[in-house]
Amino acid sequence: YAWDANEEYLFKAMVAFAMRRYSRKSTTQISNVLLCNVTDRVSFWFVVTDSSKNVTTVPGSEVEAAIRNNRNRINSAFLLSDKTLQFLKITSTLSPPVEPSTPVWLIVFGVVLCLIVAGIVFLVFAGIQQRKKKNKESTERENLEEKGEVTVTVENGIPCEVLDLKAGHINGVFAADDERFTPL
Question: Which interval of the chain is the signal sequence (predicted)?
């Protein structure tokens, strides 16, 4: 990073800008900012003179306040940060951490709540559809019984015997032609 006359001019301009913005007067010029004891390590001290009385210096507290208020602009002009551009006797002004407008816990809570509500709604609608389907099947079965029609039941995908619901059904396993077994 080469510190030359152009960089000095930019620094003076930024300090003059800060003073103008702080005091709300347009009397501070670049020529009112004086750099003293400039070293190769870019270390120096500066004073700001009053333009109305070219001899009088502006109080240090006003200069400090102006620098503090516009420090981010000065850092940005030199592409530096508070860690790399240090003003002695002026505390660094770290920017506050960015906080979202909505707290994170509220967003997470909202997502979880929406998932729970969606699950409850799904279960309610699934139950209603299942009940409608059961009622429809039971009314169909009742209609067939009333008409006396023969129904074929299907269990596990295999059609069972044809049943005559009015006449009943005799289970052949228990109906023995011969009484081989002793009755109880």
Answer: none
Handedness of CA 30, 33, 34, 40 (dihedral sign): negative
**Residue range 1-35, pLDDT digits in tens:** 677 888 889 989 998 898 888 887 767 888 888 88
C-alpha span between 140 and 161 (Å, rounded): 19
Express each pLDDT in 37-91 by its tens digit.
Answer: 887 777 778 888 887 766 677 888 888 888 888 888 888 887 777 666 666 666 6
Handedness of CA 22, 24, 25, 31 (dihedral sign): positive
Phi-psi region of 119 (alpha: psi -120 to 50; beta: other; left: phi over 0): alpha
Instruction: Yes or no: say if 86 and 43 are a contact pair by the CB < 8 Å rule.
Output: no
User: How far is the C-alpha of 3 from the C-alpha of 6, rounded, in Å?
Assistant: 8
Helices 5-23 and 60-69 cross at an angle (nearest 10°) of 100
Closest to 29 measured CA to CA, from 43, 37, 17, 41: 17
